[in-house]
Amino acid sequence: MISITSLYASLCGILILALAIRVVYLRRKNKVGIGNGGVDDLRRAVRVHANAIEYIPIVLILMAALELNGVNGWLMHVLGSLLVLSRLLHAQGLSGSPGVSFGRFWGTLVTWIVIIISVVANLVQFFAN
User: The CATH number of the domain where 73 resides is what?
Assistant: First the structure.
């Protein structure tokens, strides 16, 4: 059973849905049927949503593998909490500015750290057994 991963998958699902709703809202507001119509806010909203879609699934797959292999619950909660926090930071940072920002920088960095820790932990699990 992967109940811890399910918790963080659900939280990330809420985030992805919220980001998608924001894209739809901006498309309707700016009368853009597809793409971004050259509207800066919409272009960033599409990119924020896409970025979440690019990173969240691989982390959840890595977390599910760890949980199925019996990794301690505390590590799972650390990874899941950091994933949600980093994705929120990134969404906030990129939504506010297309350039460098606190949220974008730390959101990206922490997401990458979660991926690295998850990969290493999975490899350790594999080679230890």
Answer: 1.20.120.550
The number of distinct structural domains making up the chain is 1
**Residue written as tokens 């080679």?**
127
**How does pLDDT run across 30-68, given as a tens digit for each residue?**
999 888 888 989 999 999 999 999 999 999 999 999 999
- Residues 12 and 85 sit within 8 Å (Cβ to Cβ): no
Q: Are 113 and 82 in contact (CB under 8 A)?
A: yes
Q: How far is Cα 8 from Cα 60, in angstroms, rounded to an integer? A: 8
| Alpha helix stretches (DSSP H) within the chain | 3-29, 40-68, 73-96, 102-128
Domain range for residue 118?
3-128
Cα–Cα distance, 6 to 85 (Å, whole number): 16
In single-letter form, the type of residue at position 51 comes to: N
Q: Is the distance from CB of 55 to CB of 111 less than 8 angstroms?
A: yes
Total-model pTM: 0.92
Confidence of residue 118 (pLDDT cuts 50, 70, 90): very high
